[in-house]
Amino acid sequence: MFSAAPARQPLSEAPAFFILLPISLSLFLCGTVPSSAAALTALFSSAALLFFCTREIKKGFFPLFAAVMLASALLCALSLQRVCARPLLPGSVEGPGRVLSVLRRRYDSALLVSSGGRKYFCRVKGKSVPREGSTVYLRGAVFPLGRRGKAPHSFVRYWRAKGAEGEAVLFEIREISPPKGLPRWRRLIADYAEDRLLPLSAAYLTAFAAGIRDPLVYEPHKRAGTAHLFAVSGLHVWTAAALILFFLPLSGLLRFAVVSAAVWLYVFLAALPPGGVRAALMLQMILLSEAAGRPRSAFNNVSAALLLMLLYEPVNFYDTGWRLSAAGALFVSAAAPLFGRSFLSFICIPVLLWFVTAPIAASVFGEVPLAGLVLNIAAVPAFAVIFPLVLLLALPPLFALPGSAAAAAASEAVLALFQGAVERGAELFPGALAFDRALFMLAVFLFSAACALRCGAGLKRSAAAALIFMFFMTYSAAM
Question: How much is the pTM?
Fold first, then answer.
C-alpha cells in the first residue's frame, strides 16, 4: 500500500541528488538563456526545493547546506564552461583515422571517426561503409557541428554527447585495415555465438554481451515498446554480477576485485551504454559500502553515479540513453520504497515509469508504442527470469559441454515463447503516442513528486513542489 515516507533530512538521505539537480537544470536551460542565468536559476531552484523538502531544521544543517551549494555552484560553472566551449577546428582533415561507431540509416550511414586527436561526425552514402573499429584513410573539409544552421540544436547536442567536435564532409574514405580492439572482440563474440547457438539464442546473447542488435529480434520489441530490454542496463549488470558470485563465492578484497573487473569488462564489451555504466558505478559504490560497513541508499547511489558521469563528460546530459537511464533509475529508486513490497508496486511502478520516460523517447523517436504501457508490467519481471536462465542454458553449447543440444533447444524454446508473446502483445495493443506538452507535464509531475517524497517532504509538500516544478520545466522547455 502506498504511504508517505517517514520524516527524513534530504541532505542526509540524498546529498548527491542535490548536487546532480542544479547541474542537470543548468544544462537543460543552457542554450535558451545565458550560461550565468542558467546556473543561477538552477542553483536557486535546487536550494528552494531543498528547503521546501526539509520539514525540520536540525543542528548542522546550514554548514552541510553551504557545502552542497558551494560544490553545486563550482560544478555548474565547470560543466557549463565545458559544454559551451567551441573547439578550434582545422579547415580540413586528411590522413589515417579510426571508425569509433557506425549508425546505419535508411539512406546513409552516420560515422564517428577519430583522426589527428579529434573526433568528427560524418555521413557516408552507399553500401561500402567502413566497419566499426577499422582504420581508414579519410580526406575532407571540416565544419562546426550544425554548419550553416542546417541542423537542429538537438542534432548538435546528440553528436557532441557522442564525442564529436566537428563535422567532416568527406571527399574520400576507405578502409585500410580491419577492426581492432573491443569492436573486433565484439564481432568475434557475435560470430562465435552464431556458430554455437540457435538463431534466437544467438541474437539475444549477442545483444546482451556485445551490444549488437539483430533487427529480426529487435524490431518486434521496438514495436511492442519493450526495446529497452536490449539496452545493457542495471538488470543485465546485476545479473552478470550475481552469476559471477554464484559460481565463484568470494569475500573480502578478492570479491571486490573480481566482481569489479568482470563487470567493467562486460560494460566495455557492450560498448559502454549509459545504463550499463551507471549500473556498474552503482555496483562499485555498493561494494565499497559493504567493505567499509556503511549503510547504502539506492536513490543516493543512483544520483552519485549519474553525477560522476556528468562530471566526466557534461554533454552526456544530452544523450538520449543517459536521459532515459537517469529518469528511469531515479524514479524507480525513489518510488519503490514508497510503495513497499506490496503486489500493487509490481503494477504501479512499471505503469508510472512508462509515463515518466515516454516523453523522452517520443521527443527523439517521434512516438512511443502504447503496447509498452501494458506489456512492461509482465515483460520486465519475465525478462528478469529469462535473462539469467538463457545465460545458464547457453553455457553448455558455448563451451561444448555434455547436454549441449538439449540446453540449446531449451533456450530457443524459452526465447521463442517470449518473442511470440511480445509480438502478440503488440498486435493486441496497437497505436502509438506522440510527444505533447500534457505528456511532458505529467512526466515531470510524477518524477518530481517521487523524488520529493523520497527526500522526506511529505505528501502535501511533495505535491506542491511537483506542481511548481512542472510549470517551471514546461515554461523552460517552451522558451
Answer: 0.88
